């Protein structure tokens, strides 16, 4: 028998906590290979949440654990619960669940099933077939949830991970132990994103199962929306290798342009050689910035030779994008049009500028990002 521990963070959930714990413990009758227990981290609720848990503890001997802490946010509450679980309970897997019945306790066997099949982390996903968000949510709440998930998905360029913010999950204890240092920095709701991001970067095996999120009937929501949005954006900016890769691209463009200007105007190089030198300087600086910043989790390992080899490959990939731009531009000019476009009667731009921007956005960026990930900064 393996132990599965359901962790419930609570703040004023007296309306639901008793029935929820009993429903979770009832799941023991449905699973054969698991022993399900519950840990509640109550952050100084001002209602009877902790008192009700203590009453239940007497009824269900040694199946219910209670931690009582200060109120410091959801991420902090999970972090405290994880540390307690690792030290005193040693489960094989932890299931995270909201305590307001938004997550149906009857689904816990489905999560355990995926864990038994080999997943390291199972996410209850509302944005896959079979999953859903509450129909009665106001339109602003629906938009917020959908957009938050899309922003994170595209911000990290992890298109096959559909759910980032839902808190119904099962995570193997080794992965939690491993992630403790990373997630302790995120005390609010953004902790859920930080945990999943860490699991992906670790190469953990992920599974998504459909989840129907139910609107709470009792108690009040604790989310502070504008703060949450800012935390999400800050997290993506500091942790997405894709965003950093785009920023490096812009810096590379500036480096190329500045050096070309310098060589031509100050050192009187001829224009073609000035541009060749400036392009190579930009390639070198892009290579270094990508290695030590954008893809720092997958930094090139080994000695001088592996650096040299990767650097030469990087030059090939960069030459590829120059060729793609050249060929793409000449095809567009020839088969679409080579003319001046009048922008709403206020400005004129040449069509080649539009083509160049489109080629960079839709061909060069995916081309380079995919090759960097698959060839130069491969996952170890
Ligand atoms: N221990 C602890 N639990 C918290 C804290 N903040 C939120 N929670 C719990 O975390 C879970 C999710 O919080 P909710 O306020 O329901 O957030 P939500 O589910 O996104 O929003 P609603 O369902 O609309 O309320 C609930 O069980 C809360 O009681 C906290 O600071 N400490
Ligand atoms: Mg809730």
TrEMBL record:
Gene3D superfamilies named among the record's database cross-references: Spore Coat Polysaccharide Biosynthesis Protein SpsA, Chain A
GtrA/DPMS transmembrane domain segment(s): 244-377
Any single Pfam family the record assigns to this protein: GtrA_DPMS_TM
Keyword Cell cycle included in the entry's annotation: no
Main location: membrane
SUPFAM superfamilies membership: Nucleotide-diphospho-sugar transferases (SSF53448)
GO MF, any single term: dolichyl-phosphate beta-D-mannosyltransferase activity
Cellular-component GO terms for this entry: membrane
Start and end residues of each Glycosyltransferase 2-like domain: 6-160
Coiled-coil regions listed in the entry: none
Membrane topology: Multi-pass membrane protein
Entry's Gene Ontology BP terms: glycolipid biosynthetic process; polysaccharide biosynthetic process
Keywords of the record: Glycosyltransferase, Membrane, Transferase, Transmembrane, Transmembrane helix
Classification via InterPro entries: DPM1-like, Glyco_trans_2-like, GtrA_DPMS_TM, Nucleotide-diphossugar_trans
Record-stated family: Belongs to the glycosyltransferase 2 family.
Name of the molecule in the record: Dolichyl-phosphate beta-D-mannosyltransferase
Annotated source species: Candidatus Roizmanbacteria bacterium GW2011_GWC2_34_23
